[in-house]
């Protein structure tokens, strides 16, 4: 760098007398030269480029606080930054807004905007959405890594009960933590399947027995298997509740509510069977028990706890409410129109099956959904033509929203795989960084990262470093870090 007072440099103060509006400056960003005029840059005086206009009168200390290098002969400022991102950022001086080009990392682009001191409010809404999505991904990666570190770490200050509680929680909730935990997960999965099969097989008349009152009931062997399965589910739920770090969150979780609904009917029906006869009529008790036994179908949803595919499907449907709403709206309009037309066209036939428009709704539903039971069908020529049109419209109405729903499923599934890979990569980087005995420091860094993602700036700079920079110095001793330009590329 050229220092003030060097005889080889002209005095920079000679440029300070020019009017800043008429001043022309040359900026070289990553080898790409751009020429700017003061009147354009001074529209946003708080940005770094606008500060360049007035920095010449402050000497070389002021200049080098804003740029990486300066050539007073060419009057050219040098920056080791990403030129592609810079081309997008300078649009704010001409158009008042910024659009992020496709292929640029949103994290790096956000950091570039911070370097050039351009406010994020100038970023277009579509680009802000992309940036927000990346922020959520980084927070999710930090959360996953923190969970893994919490599982691996042992706090000597914790009581024996806390350590035991954490081990039980890991044993039941995280099958990937150990081989015995995977065995328990497989056993739980098998108990769910066995219980579901027993519920279905118990309804076969040939396998049922007749009690003293002449009523059919499940075979005692099947009943014993059902009791054993419920005992497993109960023990599993109680242990998970006791070992849960946040019991209120655990109790209100959707999957845990499903677990309760799968277990509760057995105990309620058992109570009604032994005590209900004294409080109400026997027929009412039997009806209540039968209704509660139907609730056993809720246990099939317990499979979602052990199936990432079902979890992905649930999330895809949750993200597809708009598409599902459109599907229901299309079908509702079609059902109303074609049922009304079918009722009107079939009134001329003496043996018509369309007695009213509400009754015709059933015909329109089974026709538009291509089910076609045949219990209600048109008999006139116009009615048959109406049925054909309603069938075609139903196929189109169902097919239109399906593609976005499938896209949501595929996008979320791929995103989960990417996040898992990124979390593993993050742990590998931390293992490399802790090769010199800094495992404790690495853990505290991740804790800070997780905290900063919630409390601090929009992104933590540490997560950027850990993703793109930290492994370089382990591979080469000559270069200890990547430049921002290399990281962006």
UniProtKB/TrEMBL annotation:
This is Voltage-gated potassium channel regulatory subunit KCNF1. GO terms for cellular component: voltage-gated potassium channel complex. Residues 415-452 form a coiled coil. InterPro entries: Ion_trans_dom, K_chnl_volt-dep_Kv, K_chnl_volt-dep_Kv5/Kv9, KCNF1-like_BTB_POZ, SKP1/BTB/POZ_sf, T1-type_BTB, VG_K_chnl, Volt_channel_dom_sf. PANTHER family: POTASSIUM VOLTAGE-GATED CHANNEL SUBFAMILY F MEMBER 1, VOLTAGE-GATED POTASSIUM CHANNEL. Residues 182-416 form the Ion transport domain. It is a multi-pass membrane protein. Regulatory alpha-subunit of the voltage-gated potassium (Kv) channel which, when coassembled with KCNB1 or KCNB2, can modulate their expression and their gating kinetics by acting on deactivation upon repolarization and inactivation during maintained depolarization. Accelerates inactivation but has relatively little effect on deactivation. Coexpression with KCNB1 or KCNB2 markedly slows inactivation. Heterotetramer with KCNB1 or KCNB2.
């Amino acid at each position: 760098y050229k220092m003030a007072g060097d005889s080889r440099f002209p005095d920079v103060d000679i440029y300070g007398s020019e009017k800043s509006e008429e001043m022309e400056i040359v900026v070289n960003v990553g080898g790409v030269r751009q020429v700017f005029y003061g009147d354009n840059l001074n529209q946003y005086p708080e940005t770094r480029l606008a500060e360049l206009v007035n920095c010449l009168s402050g000497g070389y200390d002021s200049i080098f606080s804003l740029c990486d290098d300066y050539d007073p002969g060419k009057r050219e400022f040098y920056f080791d930054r990403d030129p592609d991102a810079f081309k997008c950022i300078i649009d704010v001086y001409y158009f008042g807004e910024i659009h992020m080009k496709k292929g640029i990392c949103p994290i790096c682009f956000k950091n570039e905007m911070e370097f050039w001191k351009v406010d994020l409010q100038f970023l277009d809404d579509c680009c802000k959405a992309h940036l927000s999505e990346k922020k959520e991904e980084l927070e999710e990666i930090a959360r996953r890594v923190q969970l893994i570190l919490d599982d691996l770490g042992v706090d000597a200050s914790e009581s024996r009960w806390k350590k035991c509680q954490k081990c039980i929680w890991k044993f039941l909730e995280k099958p990937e933590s150990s081989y015995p935990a995977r065995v328990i997960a497989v056993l739980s999965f098998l108990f769910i399947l066995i219980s579901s099969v027993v519920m279905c097989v118990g309804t076969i008349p040939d396998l049922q027995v007749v009690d003293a009152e002449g009523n059919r009931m499940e075979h005692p062997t099947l009943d014993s298997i059902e009791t054993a399965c419920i005992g497993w589910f109960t023990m599993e739920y109680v242990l998970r509740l006791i070992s849960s770090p946040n019991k209120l969150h655990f109790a209100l979780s959707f999957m845990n509510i499903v677990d309760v609904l799968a277990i509760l009917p057995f105990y309620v029906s058992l109570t009604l069977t032994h005590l209900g006869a004294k409080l109400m009529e026997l027929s009412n008790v039997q009806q209540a028990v039968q209704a509660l036994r139907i609730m056993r179908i809720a246990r099939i949803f317990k499979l979602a706890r052990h199936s990432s595919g079902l979890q992905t499907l649930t999330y895809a449907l949750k993200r597809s409410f708009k598409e599902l709403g459109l599907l229901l709206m299309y079908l509702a309009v079609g059902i109303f129109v074609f049922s009304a037309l079918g009722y009107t066209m079939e009134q001329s036939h003496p043996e018509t099956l369309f007695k009213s428009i509400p009754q015709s709704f059933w015909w329109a539903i089974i026709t538009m959904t291509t089910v076609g039971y045949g219990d209600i069908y048109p008999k006139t020529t116009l009615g048959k033509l109406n049925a054909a049109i309603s069938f075609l419209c139903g196929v189109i109405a169902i097919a239109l929203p399906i593609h976005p729903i499938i896209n949501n499923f595929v996008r979320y599934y791929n995103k989960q795989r990417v996040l898992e890979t990124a979390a593993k990569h993050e742990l590998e980087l931390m293992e490399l960084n802790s090769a010199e005995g800094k495992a404790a420091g690495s853990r505290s860094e991740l804790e800070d990262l997780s905290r900063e993602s919630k409390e601090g700036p929009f992104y933590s700079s540490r997560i950027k470093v850990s993703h793109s920079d930290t492994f370089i110095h382990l591979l080469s001793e000559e270069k200890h870090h990547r430049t921002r330009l290399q990281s962006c590329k």
